[in-house]
Design brief:
The protein has five helices and no strands. It has helices at residues 2-29, 33-37, 39-60, 66-88, 96-113.
Length: 115
Protein backbone atom coordinates (compact mmCIF):
# COMPACT_ATOMS: atom_id res chain seq x y z
CA UNK A 1 0.00 0.00 0.00
CA UNK A 2 2.72 2.44 0.97
CA UNK A 3 4.51 1.92 -2.35
CA UNK A 4 1.32 2.73 -4.32
CA UNK A 5 0.90 6.04 -2.47
CA UNK A 6 4.53 6.94 -3.13
CA UNK A 7 4.17 6.19 -6.85
CA UNK A 8 0.93 8.18 -6.98
CA UNK A 9 2.55 11.17 -5.31
CA UNK A 10 5.50 10.95 -7.67
CA UNK A 11 3.17 10.99 -10.69
CA UNK A 12 1.24 13.98 -9.34
CA UNK A 13 4.46 15.80 -8.50
CA UNK A 14 5.91 15.07 -11.96
CA UNK A 15 2.75 16.35 -13.63
CA UNK A 16 2.81 19.49 -11.52
CA UNK A 17 6.46 20.17 -12.33
CA UNK A 18 5.80 19.63 -16.04
CA UNK A 19 2.87 22.05 -15.89
CA UNK A 20 4.92 24.73 -14.15
CA UNK A 21 7.91 24.32 -16.48
CA UNK A 22 5.63 24.45 -19.52
CA UNK A 23 3.85 27.57 -18.31
CA UNK A 24 7.12 29.28 -17.45
CA UNK A 25 8.68 28.40 -20.79
CA UNK A 26 5.75 29.74 -22.76
CA UNK A 27 5.71 32.93 -20.70
CA UNK A 28 9.31 33.62 -21.63
CA UNK A 29 8.88 32.56 -25.24
CA UNK A 30 6.15 35.04 -26.13
CA UNK A 31 6.62 38.77 -25.93
CA UNK A 32 3.70 40.98 -25.09
CA UNK A 33 2.26 43.21 -27.79
CA UNK A 34 3.87 46.22 -26.09
CA UNK A 35 7.27 44.52 -26.25
CA UNK A 36 6.76 43.78 -29.94
CA UNK A 37 5.70 47.37 -30.63
CA UNK A 38 8.50 48.96 -28.58
CA UNK A 39 11.62 46.79 -28.95
CA UNK A 40 14.08 49.59 -28.15
CA UNK A 41 12.23 50.55 -24.98
CA UNK A 42 11.96 46.88 -24.04
CA UNK A 43 15.73 46.45 -24.41
CA UNK A 44 16.45 49.51 -22.26
CA UNK A 45 13.95 48.43 -19.60
CA UNK A 46 15.28 44.85 -19.62
CA UNK A 47 18.77 46.15 -18.93
CA UNK A 48 17.48 48.34 -16.09
CA UNK A 49 15.70 45.35 -14.55
CA UNK A 50 18.86 43.26 -14.88
CA UNK A 51 20.93 45.96 -13.21
CA UNK A 52 18.37 46.11 -10.40
CA UNK A 53 18.81 42.36 -9.82
CA UNK A 54 22.59 42.71 -9.88
CA UNK A 55 22.50 45.51 -7.30
CA UNK A 56 20.26 43.45 -5.01
CA UNK A 57 22.54 40.42 -5.39
CA UNK A 58 25.61 42.49 -4.51
CA UNK A 59 23.93 43.85 -1.38
CA UNK A 60 22.69 40.41 -0.38
CA UNK A 61 26.18 38.96 -0.80
CA UNK A 62 27.61 41.76 1.32
CA UNK A 63 29.67 43.09 -1.59
CA UNK A 64 27.89 46.45 -1.72
CA UNK A 65 26.67 48.83 0.96
CA UNK A 66 23.03 49.80 1.12
CA UNK A 67 23.95 53.45 0.58
CA UNK A 68 25.85 52.65 -2.62
CA UNK A 69 22.92 50.50 -3.76
CA UNK A 70 20.53 53.37 -3.12
CA UNK A 71 22.69 55.70 -5.19
CA UNK A 72 22.81 53.21 -8.06
CA UNK A 73 19.06 52.68 -7.89
CA UNK A 74 18.65 56.47 -8.07
CA UNK A 75 20.86 56.54 -11.18
CA UNK A 76 18.72 53.82 -12.77
CA UNK A 77 15.50 55.69 -11.90
CA UNK A 78 16.87 58.78 -13.68
CA UNK A 79 17.64 56.68 -16.77
CA UNK A 80 14.15 55.16 -16.65
CA UNK A 81 12.56 58.61 -16.38
CA UNK A 82 14.67 59.86 -19.28
CA UNK A 83 13.52 56.86 -21.35
CA UNK A 84 9.90 57.74 -20.57
CA UNK A 85 10.46 61.40 -21.40
CA UNK A 86 12.09 60.49 -24.72
CA UNK A 87 9.23 58.15 -25.58
CA UNK A 88 6.63 60.80 -24.77
CA UNK A 89 8.20 63.03 -27.42
CA UNK A 90 8.11 60.31 -30.09
CA UNK A 91 4.64 58.80 -29.91
CA UNK A 92 5.67 56.20 -27.34
CA UNK A 93 8.84 55.11 -29.14
CA UNK A 94 12.52 55.94 -28.76
CA UNK A 95 14.90 56.40 -31.67
CA UNK A 96 18.08 54.41 -32.27
CA UNK A 97 20.10 57.44 -31.20
CA UNK A 98 18.12 57.83 -27.99
CA UNK A 99 18.58 54.13 -27.24
CA UNK A 100 22.33 54.56 -27.73
CA UNK A 101 22.36 57.47 -25.27
CA UNK A 102 20.44 55.43 -22.70
CA UNK A 103 22.71 52.42 -23.24
CA UNK A 104 25.80 54.56 -22.58
CA UNK A 105 24.23 55.75 -19.33
CA UNK A 106 23.36 52.17 -18.38
CA UNK A 107 26.93 51.10 -19.18
CA UNK A 108 28.25 53.70 -16.74
CA UNK A 109 25.96 52.42 -13.98
CA UNK A 110 26.84 48.82 -14.86
CA UNK A 111 30.54 49.55 -14.33
CA UNK A 112 29.74 50.98 -10.90
CA UNK A 113 27.88 47.78 -9.99
CA UNK A 114 30.84 45.62 -10.89
CA UNK A 115 31.07 41.82 -10.89
Amino acid sequence: MKNTKTVGRAVVLSALVALIVGATGSAFASDTQWQKNHPRREQVNHRLANQNKRIHAQVKAGDMSKSKAAALHADDRKIRQEERDMASQNGGHITKGQKAVLNRQENAVSKKIGG
